[in-house]
Design a protein that fits this description.
73% helix; single chain; mainly alpha
Length: 226
């Protein structure tokens, strides 16, 4: 009965983490689900991070500290996902008879080497089911790393697209940008009609911002340089 319980707990942990990875990285739409691992992670860590920032003197130091949260939180979230998958497979492996049976640290080590496809071979599963799960873990680990490597450039490209037009606004509306400066500069250059084109571009930018930040909410934690 204890082995069955271990298997159920490990399988449940795997399903929770894999579902989170699918929804956050691969599903290009906003997910309306109240209890989500990523949501709990970002809300709890951001609350602690921003509370520390409020104790720093206002200025570049505080801004730099807040700017570190977005990239660092993504790294920690990826580590959390990988750890969850490794622990889940280790828990499943302890439910099978073999060298890792009832030895949690050995199971964790065996699961980690399988997940990152190191394959030292010092611990080998004996039963056919355990061997099957070892192969599945190696495949999931390889796929997880590939998905993460492909995901980060997409995230930073969306962040770059968001910032590009904000930076270009300085030349038209001053730094920091002010609406009155925008109108005055175009009026001085006798180019008031160009504001229509500019506002149309910003309408597209707003639509793209809405789509990208709903699909990838963690982008809202990437602090703008402006």
């Amino acid at each position: 009965m204890m082995n069955i319980f271990k298997f159920i707990v490990g399988a449940a942990l795997l399903l929770i983490v894999l579902r989170e990875v699918f929804e956050v990285i691969l599903l290009p739409r906003h997910v309306i689900r109240r209890v989500r691992l990523a949501r709990v992670f970002f809300r709890s860590t951001w609350k602690a991070w921003s509370k520390i920032a409020h104790h720093l003197p206002q200025g570049p130091r505080r801004d730099l500290f807040l700017a570190h949260y977005g990239p660092l939180s993504m790294v920690l979230l990826i580590v959390l996902w990988a750890s969850g998958l490794i622990v889940g497979f280790a828990t499943i492996q302890t439910s099978f008879p073999g060298p890792v049976h009832d030895h949690w640290l050995s199971a964790l080590y065996f699961s980690g080497t399988n997940f990152f496809t190191l394959g030292y071979g010092d611990i080998v599963p004996r039963s056919g089911v355990a061997k099957g799960f070892a192969v599945v873990e190696a495949g999931i680990g390889f796929g997880f790393l590939a998905v993460v490597i492909g995901y980060l450039p997409v995230l930073y490209q969306l962040f770059s697209d968001r910032e590009k037009q904000v930076i270009e606004l300085d030349a038209r509306a001053g730094s920091p940008p002010i609406g009155a400066h925008l109108v005055c500069r175009h009026n001085e250059g006798e180019a008031i009609e160009a504001i229509d084109v500019l506002l149309r571009d910003w309408e597209h930018w707003a639509a793209q911002l809405n789509e990208s930040h709903l699909s990838y909410p963690m982008l809202s934690y990437y602090r703008s340089q402006q």
